[in-house]
Amino acid sequence: MTSKNVAQLLIDLGVARSHSRPRVSNDNPFSESQFKTLKYRNDFPERFDSIEHARTWCKDFFDYLRHEHRHSALGLHTPASVYFGTAADIQAKRARVMADAYAANPNRFSSPPQPPKLPTAAWINPPTPQPKIVST
């Protein structure tokens, strides 16, 4: 689709376009990231049959993304495991399995393996640190 076709489709569907922050390319970086993730999926339909088809597909996709897909930025954990606090237990189990594998055959490794670290914070666009103003 081209921009004109998308714009016309929005008009045909009765969707009002809004630009809450003109000339800002990353108005909602979380939403932009989700759109890219959606469009790069092999099973993303070229066109949805109905609004219900779109809702069902998106619900299934986001359930998968939250509960099954392991994100590299989250130490190969799911967002749900990080959010609900089970990631630390999972990481400890992974560390034990890796330590056992290393103990059983250390020649297979160049150094003792470690699971990826858990993030202390997850950002798409981290906030810019503001200078501290000291009053006298």
Automatic annotation (TrEMBL):
Residues 105-136 are annotated as: Disordered. Gene3D superfamilies: Ribonuclease H-like superfamily/Ribonuclease H. One of its GO terms (molecular function) is nucleic acid binding. Transmembrane segments: none annotated. Coiled coil: none annotated. InterPro entries: Integrase_cat-core (IPR001584), RNaseH-like_sf (IPR012337), RNaseH_sf (IPR036397). One of its GO terms (biological process) is DNA integration. It comes from the Bacteria. Signal peptide: none annotated. Residues 14-79 form the Integrase catalytic domain. It holds the Pfam family rve_3. This is Integrase catalytic domain-containing protein. It comes from Mycobacterium lacus.
